[in-house]
Structures are given as C-alpha cells and as structure tokens.
Amino acid sequence: MKILHVVHAYPPSLGGSQTLTAQLAEHLVANYGDDVTVFTSVARNIDYFWGGDSQALPSGIEQMNGVTVRRFPVAKRLNTVRWLLSGVAYRLRLPYNDWLRTWQTGPFMPGLRPAIAQSGAEVIFATAFPLWHMYDAVAAAQQAQIPIVLLGALHLADRWGYDRPMIYQAIRQADAYIAHTRYERDDLIQRQKIPAAKLHVIGAGVAVAPPNNDAGAALRQARGWGAEPVVMMLGKQVARKRFDLLLDAMRTVWTDQPTARLLLAGGRTTYTQTLEQQISRLPPAQQANISLLSDFDEAQKAALLNASDIFVLASGHESFGIAFVEAWAAGKPVIGARSGALASLIDEGIDGLLFDYPHAASLAQAILTLIENPSQRQQMGAAGRHKVLEKFTWEKVTAQVRAVYTEIINRKR
Fold first, then answer.
1. How is domain 213-391 classified at the CATH fold level?
2. Which of 39, 220, 356, 413 has its CA 20 to 30 A from that of 29?
3. Which CATH code fits 2-205+393-412?
C-alpha cells in the first residue's frame, strides 16, 4: 500500500500528533511492508508557525526508520496582522471568522498542496485540526481523487480553536474520520450531523514493556525520595495543561500529607518561566517537595513513571489523553478531569479517579484518596495496564487504522 501522511510537525518535534504519525508510519513499514511518505513542516515547535519560535529543521527529504520524510518551509509573513484580524473578527462574530482564525495559526507551506495531489498515494492520512494544512490535504485529495482519512484530535471544549464550521465541513468531505474517543464520535453525530458510517473510534497507542521497578527505585534513590508518595504530572509545559491547578491542589494535599512529592515533567516552552514563578511563590518546605524536569530524554520517561505512585493530568481540554495510557502501561492509577473526552477514557473507580474540573479542592481530594489507599492504587494500576494491552498498543492501533485505509481504498475503487 502506498500511503501519504500529512502532519504539521514530525520528530524530532515533540507532541501527540507528531508521535502518533511517526509510530503509525513506522509500524506500517515494519509490520506490513507499506510504502509510507510523510509531508510535514520544518518546525521544531508549533510556535514557529506564528513567530513565537525561531528554531527550524532543514527543509528537504530524508529517510527516518524506513519512512520518507519531506519537510516544507513555512511562510510566516504578516503574523501581527493575522493575529489582530482574527481576534477582532472572533470577538465581533463576523462572517468567516473561522477562516481568519485558521489563517492566523497556519501553517502555510508553499508547494504542499500540489505535492499532495502529485504524490501518487493510494490513500492520504492527515492530522490535526485546527491547522491550515488539513484543508490543503482535503483539497489536494479531492483534486487527485485520492481517498483521505482525517484524524482531527478535537479539543471540543476549546471554542476558539475548534468552534469552526470549516472543520466540520472538511470532515464531511473526507472519506473517513478517526475520533479518538466515543465522546468525540457522539458529538460529531449529534451536534454536527456527521454520518456515523464515516466515523471510526481509534485511540492512540504506546509501546508496552514490562514495568521496570528497578529503574524507578534507582531514580527515587537518586532524588532522595524514600517511601513518601510521589504524584506525577507529565505533559508539555503549556498553560492549557493546568499545572497551576495541580499546584493549588497540592497545597491542600500537603496540609494532610506534608512529605508527598510532586514531579512535574515535560517539554520546556515559553510558559515554563511562568510555571517556575508559580513554584517560587510557594512556602520553602513545599518548594522542596517539587521536582520540575524539562526536556528530559524520552528514554527517561518509563523510569519517571515507574518512580511515581499516582499520575495526574490536570487539564480539562484534551482530545484523548495519551499521558494516561502511558501511565497505565507503567501500572499506575490516574486522575483526570470529569470533562469531555477525558471522562470517557477513564473508567472511574476501576483504573482511575475523576475530579470536578476546574476545582482544586476536588483534585486534592482525589489525590488524597489514592495516597491513603495503596491497595486501591495497585488494583487501579493493574486494571489500567490490562486496558492498554487490550486496546492501546501501537500494533493494535496500527491494525485498526490500516483497516480504515483498506476500506476506503476498496470503496473508492
């Protein structure tokens, strides 16, 4: 099968869409012998699209683990004008403000649309909304009469980013759409009137290895952690992940469990300095219980998860929650928001707990519940790992996605 994947950024760029696209591509090559090409941008960080980051990867073609990767330069002119026009149009609810908001984010990759149309691919996969390259992919697929699958990764509570009629029109034009959760699928059917036959629920995957308790124990020893409970949050250090909410919750936790440790790990961004300032305003005893890790090696992630006792994601706006799946793979219980897609992913009381977002007191109570019940933590972690082995390995995810490719290719023929 000759497959083209279109994504806004690709490793070494970090992010959920980047990882998912790379893992799918590499597993399709390794497990099925498919010919997979990726079209992407030169961005290392999506802030690059609107001038917030100056680092870029070289443009051109390279081979990465059997996958052909072509990186396109990004046009970044009129950034300030784009930002002002989109903001005014949205606040005034002007016609086509969704187009102006998409124009503001980009990315604009000259040459991408004709390259997609001329790719000779049997099927195109594109991710993720609300970025501009999705519409280039749909238009080029229609022009070349190539079937296309979209994976939107919709953060449905984010009205600025995803309350855009143009997104749902593109989904209607696609041959198939992959929703990460039942919540997303049901919203598309009920609110957007997308035909159910077009929608497929497929989560993201993780690499599953036996839990390495020795690596976790070594890390705890290196950091001077004894038997005290370790609460971990893993995610890119951006405002929408709500590190601030977790810090507020931990202030309550520390009144009851003063020795509890907090591990905050993720990719550094412009928000990291704000996070550091938030930590610096806490009492010295609480600051001493916090470890902030930025831009750690990916190989360290498993050890960090194994060293923790409870995994928390304080965000209320996620399309899926791949961090939960990574924690479950390590046999850890999770705590997430009773909000949108997140609530549909966690089986409350079985593999994790939900808190009332955005209330810090509710999050604190969930953390305290698991700190005080080690046996419950162990049972939930085991249930989460069982769920991952059943549904969320890369092998199973890739097989499901490839089945969608096969279906729409056969239908088109």
1. Rossmann fold (3.40.50)
2. 413
3. 3.40.50.2000
The number of beta carbons lying within 10 Å of the beta carbon of residue 132 is: 20
Q: How many CA atoms lie within 13 A of 193 on its CB side?
A: 2
The amino acid occupying position 409 is I
Question: Rounded CA gap, 193 and 172, in Å?
Answer: 9
Q: What is the per-residue pLDDT across 220-271, written as a single tens digit (0 to 9) for each?
A: 998 899 899 999 999 889 899 999 999 999 999 999 999 999 999 988 888 9
CB 397 within 8 A of CB 24: yes
Q: Number of C-alpha atoms within 13 angstroms, CB side, residue 338?
A: 12
Which residues are registered as beta bridge partners of 312? 335
On whether the CB atoms of residues 74 and 84 are closer than 8 A, the answer is: no
Q: Are 269 and 381 in contact (CB under 8 A)?
A: no
What is the C-alpha R_g of the chain? 22
Distance CA 138, CA 117 (A): 10
214 pLDDT above the threshold of 80 = yes
**Of 65, 50, 63, nearest in space to 102 by CA:** 50
Q: What rounded mean pLDDT belongs to the chain?
A: 94
Q: How far is CA 188 from CA 25, 193, 199, 245, in A?
A: 27, 6, 9, 30
Residue 69 has pLDDT above 90, yes or no: yes
Cβ-proximal residues to 94 (8 Å cutoff; 6+ apart), any chain: 88, 100
Centre a 10 Å sphere on the Cβ of residue 300 and count the other Cβ atoms it contains.
14
Is the sign of the CA dihedral 54, 55, 61, 64 positive or negative?
negative
CA torsion sign for 157, 20, 331, 344 is: positive
Cβ–Cβ < 8 Å for 247, 286: no
124-159 pLDDT, tens digit each: 999 999 999 999 999 999 999 999 999 999 988 888
Within the chain, which residue ranges are assigned CATH 3.40.50.2000? 2-205+393-412, 213-391
Q: Which amino acid is at 398?
A: T
**d(Cα 270, Cα 46) in Å, to the nearest integer?**
12
Burial string for 357-396 (b: 16+ CB within 10 Å, else e) reads bbebebbbbbbbebbeeeeebeebbebbbebbeeebbbeb
Amino acid at 239: A
Q: Give the span between the Cα atoms of 70 and 41, in whole angstroms.
A: 8
